[in-house]
Design goal:
alpha/beta
Length: 216
């Protein structure tokens, strides 16, 4: 299965993807599923059918005081902005913690790795080694090395904010055919990544979208 594990919709202030369009966009991109990881909300999942050809994974990209993390397979919005407490909430819901774009310049909300305790890093379930919005190849190389150093599985996600980005980067689950297989694959490290980087102008487009939505 090929699953894009990092997608934003109109429920993120800087994105323009209609969640109802995601199954069609995913299918067009050759994906078997997507994870909706809007900023601090699960609202998009209320608009999606529970059954279908495309697996829709509920997730959230939460901005803690220490930086951003992704929670996958959760059912409730997180109530805290403290990193360790956010991890507790994700795991308490049976979810998985993914470290997104660990070397994510020009993003200003990436997790500050040098300030984290080893115990905190150990609680991360996977590292997003391939992010479709990385500007430089060395960021991806460093992310892969980080995953290896921590002994964590790798994931890939487009970080899509616009429809043309969906599926640009994705996670490959060689032995998966069900959602249970996907969870098992992440826990066991049975993942690979594929895809490519998006053109850099999307960062400017995202900023413009955020400003326009704020004022209009």
């Amino acid at each position: 299965m090929r699953i894009d594990l990092h997608v934003h919709t109109i429920y993120s202030r800087d994105a323009l993807i209609n969640p109802r369009m995601l199954p069609r966009l995913a299918k067009k991109a050759g994906l078997h599923g997507v994870a909706i990881t809007d900023h601090d909300t699960l609202e998009a999942h209320r608009l999606l059918p529970r059954e279908g050809d495309i697996l829709i994974i509920p997730g959230v990209e939460v901005h803690t005081e220490e930086g951003g993390i992704i929670g996958l397979f959760i059912s409730e919005t997180l109530k805290t902005v403290k990193l360790d407490e956010a991890m507790d909430e994700i795991k308490g819901q049976g979810g998985l913690v993914v470290l997104p774009h660990p070397y994510g310049f020009p993003r200003v909300r990436s997790l500050r790795l040098d300030a984290l305790r080893k115990e905190t890093l150990d609680r991360i379930d996977a590292v997003e080694a391939l992010n479709g919005r990385q500007l430089f190849r060395r960021q991806t190389v460093r992310a892969f090395r980080l995953a290896q150093a921590l002994g964590k599985p790798v994931t890939g996600g487009s970080d899509a904010h616009f429809s043309f980005e969906v599926g640009n980067a994705y996670t490959i689950f060689p032995n998966a055919s069900t959602v249970e297989d996907v969870v098992r694959g992440l826990r066991r490290g049975e993942t690979k990544v594929g895809g490519r980087a998006t053109v850099p102008f999307v960062h400017l487009l995202t900023l413009t979208t955020k400003l326009l939505r704020r004022f209009l």
